[in-house]
Amino acid sequence: MAEPGRPADPGPHLSHIDEVGRARMVDVSAKAVTAREATARGRVSMRPETLAQIVDGRVPKGDVLATARLAGIMAAKRTHDLIPLCHPLPLTAIEVQLTPDEHGPAIAIEATVRTMAQTGVEMEALTAVSVAALTVYDMCKAVERSMRIGEIRLVAKSGGRSGDYRAE
Q1: Torsion 60-41-158-28 (CA) sign
Q2: How far apart (Å, rounded) are the C-alpha atoms in residues 82 and 91?
Q3: Could you say which of 31, 54, 121, 143 is the most buried, measured as most Cβ atoms within 10 Å of its Cβ?
Q4: Could you tell me if residue 112 is left (phi over 0), alpha (psi between -120 and 50 degrees) or otherwise beta?
Q5: Which of 9, 56, 138, 164 is catalytic?
Q6: Per-residue pLDDT of the chain (168 residues; tens, 9 = 90+)
Q7: pTM score
Q8: Does the annotation mark 138 as catalytic?
Q9: Which residues are CB-neighbours of 29 under 8 A, at least 6 positions away?
């Protein structure tokens, strides 16, 4: 039983929670600066006609793929402004790819982010994919409002104390 004013023991230690249960930014000052990389993926599913308009450059708002790629890059750079407990990081590379998938039909999105820092870039890669997907939706919503954004996930990360991760 927790004492008055203190939450019950949450179990395993959560690094973003202090000793009295308040959210906090993790202190990474004792961590080594290492090369870190993360890759995330997601999809925007749509009707074949919408995908054809994107591929053919017939969407009234302009070049959907180029705009979404730029939006993803910009979003990765601003992750610390969007996610309250993320550290601002010196990003050394951001790659965002949008690939039409006629069998989906969908736009597959992949973002890879790199840094030399004391903490990882998983959130930056996930943010890049998310904002690129939202940009595809925004640019195409006049053509199709039933598009679905989904399957956003971390697929790989390397560097740092926790080591490498690859999704199955």
Answers
A1: positive
A2: 16
A3: 121
A4: beta
A5: 138
A6: 444 554 554 445 557 777 888 888 888 888 889 999 999 999 999 999 999 999 999 999 999 999 999 999 999 999 999 999 999 999 999 999 999 999 999 999 999 999 999 999 999 999 999 999 999 999 999 999 999 999 999 999 999 888 899 998
A7: 0.88
A8: yes
A9: 118
Residue 117 tokens, joined? 């820092």
